[in-house]
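Sanity check. The docking grid for coenzyme A depends on where the pocket ends up, so I'm generating a full predicted complex first rather than guessing from homology. Inputs follow.
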Amino acid sequence: MTNRLFTPFPTLITERLTLRQLLLSDAQDIFALRSDSEINKYLGRQPSKTVEDARHFIDIITENIKKNESIYWVITLTESKTFVGTICLFEFSDQHNNCEIGYELLRHFQGKGMMKEAASKVIEYAVQTIKVQTINAFTHKNNQKSTKLLAQLEFKKSVEPDKTSPDFCVFTFSNKI
Ligand SMILES: CC(C)(COP(=O)(O)OP(=O)(O)OC[C@H]1O[C@@H](n2cnc3c(N)ncnc32)[C@H](O)[C@@H]1OP(=O)(O)O)[C@@H](O)C(=O)NCCC(=O)NCCS
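Predicted complex below; grid placement will be based on this.
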């Protein structure tokens, strides 16, 4: 059984980063992230076309967090409060004690080890506080940056591709505690 209670919002702090709640005032940055063709390249999602799409997305995420269905952090630089990306846990299963992870960084902030730093903290929170036993990541077979990140985070690649979308690989992190 997972322990999901996302109110009050669990802000997380790492060496360089603060992972905080998503706000309506993030709409412009969320739009920048979700409309960028390079970021969307392997995600198989509909790109945001307007800032209004981003606001709608923020409303949906906020509702899901209120219902403890998923959790979504904005990754910011602690010193300057700059928005650098997002990371989320979703598709929780109480039956299997697991969930899925998703993440993205604005282009300018890639290649600096920021997602490794953020994801390590989120995985620690998922295991220690939510008490999931495994975390799944579905990543496109050509998404080398994501695949490299998952290997560094000790996710293991499943031999079976994702049954519903064969271009995606399944990676799983198992809690060894
Ligand atoms: C997937 C994604 C988040 C990976 O971002 P990233 O910046 O490459 O990942 P990391 O934070 O782990 O950074 C690693 C890189 O930073 C470099 N780096 C620089 N300073 C570093 C530091 N202090 N510590 C660690 N690594 C550092 C590493 O050498 C590495 O670079 P390399 O890949 O050229 O060797 C990014 O490519 C992205 O947002 N993609 C679009 C969205 C997406 O596909 N998401 C996946 C959904 S499944």
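Relevant for the grid: Residues 12-174 form a domain with the Aminopeptidase fold (CATH 3.40.630.30).
Also worth noting: The radius of gyration is 16 Å.
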